[in-house]
Specification:
InterPro entries: DUF4145. Residues 74-157 form the DUF4145 domain. By secondary structure, this protein is an alpha+beta fold. It folds into two domains: 15-51, no CATH class; 66-182, Four Helix Bundle (Hemerythrin (Met), subunit A) (Up-down Bundle). It has helices at residues 66-78, 83-100, 108-116, 123-131, 156-193; strands at residues 15-19, 23-29, 36-41, 47-51. Strands 1-2-3-4 form a four-stranded antiparallel β-sheet, with no helix packed on it. α1 runs antiparallel to α2 (83-100) and α2 packs parallel to α5 (156-193). The chain is flat and about 70 Å long. The N and C termini lie far apart (46 Å).
Length: 200
């Protein structure tokens, strides 16, 4: 199985316990991170993961600032329980990403407009970010400094897509620039070793 905590695959060995009649729970430890995964089995046989509740297959790159990562992971964790709460956290996370990168308007819809006008944004990312305003009629519920976590109706797939959109923004604003800076630093180290000036 793939560990829902660290995303590392391992050979799972489950320990089973029966409680409350015919209910049972199973748990296993990941040998990589040593964190536990717990599953519950209902009397009619359906099994679901009780812990961790979400964030499966949604690791956040280390380049993403901690405060933004926290909102993202919380949005992923509550997704199976409340898509509306997940979408609210994801929208706040989206706004924080835009504002941290120099975009601040009176509400989120205007900030998205400003982002879409940037010439350096890839067209595929523009399309997905623009689409978020159609989820749950977001444009009718503008996020500003007062309504930052406003709860509105959304479908589960819409809330999940919000997280996918954030993945693209994380790559654009944090991951790719960090990789480019690392490549340039490595090149300059080689140039310095050869007695040449650094790259511009």
């Amino acid at each position: 199985m793939k560990c829902p905590h660290c995303n590392i695959e391992f050979h799972d060995r489950w320990t089973e316990n029966v409680f409350a009649g015919s209910w049972s729970y199973h748990y296993t430890h990941c040998p990589a991170c040593n964190k536990i995964t717990i599953q519950l089995t209902e009397p009619h046989g359906a099994t679901f993961t009780a812990y961790p509740r979400g964030a499966v297959d949604r690791p956040v790159a280390q380049e993403v600032p901690a405060a933004i990562s926290q909102d993202y992971l919380e949005a992923a964790e509550v997704l199976p329980i409340s898509p509306k709460a997940s979408a609210a956290l994801a929208r706040r996370c989206l706004q924080n990403v835009l504002r941290q990168n120099g975009i601040k308007e009176r509400d989120l819809s205007k900030e998205i407009d400003t982002f879409l006008d940037r010439p350096d944004v890839p067209s595929d990312l523009k399309g997905t970010v623009d689409a978020i305003r159609n989820f749950g009629n977001f444009s009718a519920h503008p996020i500003n400094d007062i309504t930052g976590l406003q709860i509105i109706d959304v479908e589960e797939h819409e809330a999940e897509w919000c997280l996918d959109i954030l993945d693209g923004l994380f790559d654009h604003f944090y991951v790719r620039p960090a990789k480019a800076a690392a490549r340039k630093a490595a090149l300059n180290a080689k140039l310095a070793a050869a007695g040449k000036p650094p790259a511009k």
